[in-house]
UniProtKB/TrEMBL annotation, chain A:
The keyword Transcription applies. This is Response regulator receiver domain-containing protein. GO terms for biological process: phosphorelay signal transduction system. Gene3D superfamilies: 3.40.50.2300.
From TrEMBL, chain B:
Residues 248-301 form the PAC domain. Its EC number is 2.7.13.3. The keyword Membrane does not apply. It catalyses: ATP + protein L-histidine = ADP + protein N-phospho-L-histidine. This is histidine kinase. The lineage of its organism: Bacteria, Pseudomonadati, Pseudomonadota, Alphaproteobacteria, Hyphomicrobiales.
Length: 127, 657
């Protein structure tokens, strides 16, 4: 009682190398009521994950420059930070050759922003 | 001509019933030369008779109608690109009347005594100014050679059958006359034997010993000879117990392992019984039928190859299938393929097939450790080395090859974009006498593997290219979406922004469906399912229509219109309430160029609807209908909205935009 604390917004790490798409994704995450955190590639994303402990959801593209792509990043997140939820997007059609890590979802680009918003809310509600 | 008639008589083949081996050859010839007709034509004095035929009704024709008779004078292919233009054939009634044949190519059938008895020919009903491709010419010659091999084999086996029939009558005849027969059979390459059932001792004739590759001796334990039979055929032969109760099969074929590799043996036998009817002796004859067996195996392998390659789409399984078939046809001891690094001149041998007791060569090898034959492989030439100790390309390195059980080496290079990328190999661990037919077989086999794999490569490249294009297109659409999202951020009426975004998705998912089918076509039902799924209304729509496929133009048009219809239904129409439904139906009316695709969208159980006063983009798009010539009928009935659209099917199926 007494001291009211503003509830902190859950943080979503957006990983995207294309600036325009990154901007749109950050807006989407913010409009959905989350705190957006940006990373331009998988290496940057890993650094952030190691220092910030409040990331609840990783929202990543697949095709990115750097030492690993989004699929490897997702696999590593699932391995090292099991509680974090994962959303994967790509311009590639999802085919049999794409194996998603457990508890991750895939959306094809261009994605429907309302579907992603709903997905973020569902994932946040799990915690 | 007398030579020809004599040769035909010796084969005793005229008017014989159809045989699968020859039917197979004409089938291959039509496939090879891409003609509707192929014939094995034997030319008599007054007629030509067909031993096998594809695409031709009559089993013989008068000599006056024969084109093949013109092939009897030359020793190479006779190719007539346009039969109406050639003085020898322009008056032929097969040319001037039904079936109006136009193109002819025939390879002469030449017996081992150099007599031409007819031809293996292919016929088309359209002229071919260019004649045959070089590999078709080569293939046709090789198939013609196969026909003769089979004729020879047939003759041999007929002689064998005759001899065996005589052999069977032995038991009933006097022993004295049998001796004469035996002498005759020894001369004909037939070995005879007699097994004493009680002791298990076999008395062989000298020819029997030669056929079994054992020193000539008066007797052998039967079990010792039985042990020479290869493991796969063990059980076919007789043994002590099956002889004791006379249950052994009387006519069998099996393979034996000899110093010179595997040989095929045909054996026939009968039992001699005592007065009580108990079997006391088994007597019989054996013959080496390896040549006949291999000839048949080669024809079968060529047929199987075409069949197997057409079902496979990755080069490695194709290479393995080819190696497997080659090994069977040539009684090899090892077969498989390797992945080549041309710059390093190395090959990584993949898990291969080996005969029992033969080691594996899986792993990395340097070509130069085994000789200089990589020079031939690099330029795409198959390498056939009948004995590695004798061939100049390998003799200096023979020991390295012998150490890994390679005495005979066959390598067929597979090129990928001009680079030597895979090698199909067949090895024997013993010297192997190659016949001309076998070498021709190997060349033709190699050509077929190479061309089949080249086809698969071309298809794969095209797919990669299309996937890449699709990927870029989707990324571009994503960028358009991002630009619009940024530009329209200040717009207060978010509904319009969302409508734009959803239309972009409708377009994108239409592209996605097309991409899955190589950008060529999409089944109407898939387009409908995908669009409705995306809007999460699929379970409220009844879909019923015949299987119809659209081209890219029709697919995009239908996706966009359907998106608007469904969006409107969710906002204002039957899908805005809980109980409303939609029925989608379509069918094709008429045929050919005039066929019309007719599509109906029928809402029911929704709120009362009226024609909207303001026509938005969606309504306009719906009123445009499907692509091209056609029409739209929009009716706001009390039961709900009904939209009918129709368009020429040919326009909806058009391949380009």
């Amino acid at each position: 009682m007494g001291s009211s604390k503003t509830p902190t917004k859950p943080a979503v790490l957006v990983v995207e190398d294309e600036p325009l798409l990154l901007m749109m994704a950050l807006d989407l995450v913010e409009d959905a009521g989350f705190e957006p955190v940006e990373a331009r590639n998988a290496d940057e994303a890993l650094e952030i994950l190691q220092t910030r402990k409040d990331i609840r959801i990783v929202f990543t593209d697949i095709d990115m420059p750097g030492t690993m792509n989004g699929m490897r990043l997702a696999a590593m997140v699932r391995d090292r930070w099991p509680p974090i939820e994962i959303i994967i997007v790509s311009g590639h059609v999802k085919g049999g050759d794409v194996t998603l890590p457990p508890r991750s979802v895939f959306y094809s680009k261009p994605y429907d922003t309302s579907q992603i918003t709903a997905q973020l809310h569902r994932m946040a509600a799990l915690h | 001509m007398l030579d020809r008639l004599e040769a035909l008589a010796a084969y005793d083949i005229l008017n014989s019933p159809a045989e699968a081996e020859f039917d197979g050859i004409v089938q291959i010839a039509t496939a090879l030369c891409k003609t509707p007709v192929a014939l094995i034509s034997l030319v008599e004095a007054d007629r030509q008779w067909f031993k096998a035929r594809v695409g031709f009704e009559a089993c013989e024709t008068p000599i006056s109608q024969s084109v093949c008779r013109h092939a009897l004078s030359g020793t190479d292919l006779l190719v007539i690109p346009d039969l109406t233009a050639d003085p020898r054939t322009r008056d032929n009634t097969l040319v001037t009347e039904e079936p109006h044949i136009r193109f002819y190519a025939g390879a002469p059938l030449i017996t081992p005594d150099n007599v031409i008895i007819g031809s293996l020919c292919v016929i088309d009903t359209v002229p071919r100014p260019q004649g045959l491709e070089p590999e078709q010419r080569e293939g046709l010659r090789a198939l013609a050679a196969q026909v003769i091999v089979l004729f020879e084999a047939r003759k041999l086996s007929q002689r064998k059958d005759d001899l065996f029939r005589r052999q069977k009558s032995l038991t009933a005849n006097m022993r004295a006359s049998a001796n004469e027969t035996l002498a005759a059979q020894e001369a004909g390459g037939i070995g005879t034997f007699e097994v004493d059932i009680a002791s298990g001792i076999l008395k062989p004739s000298p020819t029997f010993c030669r056929i079994f590759h054992v020193p000539v001796a008066a007797s052998y334990p039967a079990a010792m000879l039985e042990a020479k039979i290869v493991s796969g055929d063990q059980g076919a032969q007789s043994n002590d117990s099956s002889r004791a109760d006379a249950s052994a099969a009387l006519e069998v074929e099996y393979r034996i392992q000899t110093d010179l590799g595997i040989r095929w043996i045909s054996r026939t036998a009968s039992f001699v019984r005592d007065e009580a009817g108990r079997p006391v002796k088994m007597i019989g004859a054996v013959k080496d039928i390896t040549i006949i067996k291999r000839a048949a195996a080669r024809v079968q392998a060529l047929l199987d190859l075409g069949d197997r390659l057409s079902h496979l789409t990755d080069t490695e399984s194709m290479a393995m299938a080819a190696a497997d078939l080659m090994a069977k046809a040539l009684d090899a001891t090892r077969a498989g393929f390797g992945i080549v690094n041309m710059a390093e001149e190395t090959v990584v041998m993949q898990p291969e097939w080996t005969a029992p007791g033969v080691s594996s060569v899986v792993g990395l090898h340097h070509f130069r450790d085994y000789g200089s034959f990589i020079n031939d492989l690099k330029i795409g030439n198959p390498v056939v080395i009948p004995d590695v100790t004798q061939d100049p390309r390998t003799s200096a390195n023979a020991q390295a090859l012998l150490d890994i059980d390679i005495r005979v080496l066959v390598n067929v290079p597979i090129m990928d974009q001009g680079r030597f990328s895979l090698v199909v190999f067949v090895h024997h661990n013993h010297p192997y006498a190659w016949s001309g037919e076998e070498l021709a077989f190997l060349r033709s086999f190699g050509d077929r593997i190479q061309s089949a794999i080249a086809r698969v490569h071309a298809e794969a490249e095209q797919q990669v290219l299309q996937r890449e294009l699709g990927h870029r297109l989707k990324n571009t659409l994503a960028m358009v979406q991002a630009i619009a999202a940024q530009t329209l951020r200040p717009v207060k009426e978010r509904e319009h922004v969302h409508a734009f975004e959803r239309r972009l998705h409708a377009l994108s998912s239409a592209h996605e469906i097309l991409l899955e089918r190589n950008w060529s076509s999409a089944p109407v039902v898939n387009v409908i399912d995908r669009t409705l799924d995306r809007l999460a209304v699929r379970d409220r729509v009844d879909v019923d229509g015949s299987p119809v496929t659209f081209g890219p133009k029709g697919t995009l048009s239908l996706s966009l219109v359907l998106h608007e219809l469904a969006t409107n239904a969710v906002k204002y129409g039957s899908l805005s309430g809980l109980n409303g439904r939609v029925a989608i139906g379509w069918h094709v009316e008429g045929r050919g160029d005039q066929a019309v695709f007719r599509f109906t969208w029928k809402e029911s159980n929704g709120p009362l609807v009226a024609e909207p006063e303001n026509k938005g983009f969606g309504s306009k798009l719906i009123r445009m209908g499907l692509a091209g010539t056609g029409g739209v009928d929009v009716r706001y009935e009390p039961s709900g909205l009904i939209v009918e659209m129709w368009a020429l099917l040919s326009q909806l199926q058009q391949a380009d935009f």
